[in-house]
Amino acid sequence: MKKIGAHLPDFSLKNQDGVLVHSQDWIGAPVVVYFYPGDFTPICTAQACSFRNQFDDFKDYKVRVVGISHDDVASHKKFATQNQLPFDLLSDTDNAVQDLFEVPKGMFGLLSGRVTYVFDAKGKLALQYKADLRAKEHVKKALKAITLLS
């Protein structure tokens, strides 16, 4: 996993609408980047919906929230629409960005890991949190880190 203070990796991925999103465009405001194993799984859905339910709190701090998994754009579109997600889901089908972030494998080494990263407005890593089964804790930890950055 990345060390606290590490810089936000430079990458571009398509979101659920097929729009290419560039990580360096996020510099200037805090960002929460969370990696999750896959769309439509129970724990991943709970995590995404927890971020959705607290989204206004993140907006109050002018924080961007971004989810990333190996699922393709079409899957992300369906998942975001079905769960009314107000933030980008980025498609990392070859796990290249997951590797840039040094996300460890999840349960039994079979799935992508579940890790949340919080970067400050300068793109410096302020928090990383890994917990495969405690999806809702990711939101709590991210919000706490954001309040400490303010």
TrEMBL record:
Cellular component aspect of the GO annotation: cytoplasm
EC class: oxidoreductase
Q: Which PROSITE patterns match?
A: THIOREDOXIN_2
Q: Which GO terms describe its biological process?
A: cell redox homeostasis; cellular response to oxidative stress
Reaction(s) catalysed by this chain's protein: a hydroperoxide + [thioredoxin]-dithiol = an alcohol + [thioredoxin]-disulfide + H2O
Q: Could you tell me the EC number(s) of this protein?
A: 1.11.1.24
Alphabetical UniProt keywords: Antioxidant, Disulfide bond, Oxidoreductase, Peroxidase, Redox-active center
The answer, when asked if Oxidoreductase is one of the entry's keywords, is: yes
Single GO MF descriptor:
thioredoxin peroxidase activity
Assembly and interaction partners: Monomer.
Hey, which family's this protein in? Belongs to the peroxiredoxin family. BCP/PrxQ subfamily.
Q: Please identify the protein, giving its name as recorded.
A: thioredoxin-dependent peroxiredoxin
Name the source organism: uncultured Aureispira sp
- Organism classification: Bacteria, Pseudomonadati, Bacteroidota, Saprospiria, Saprospirales
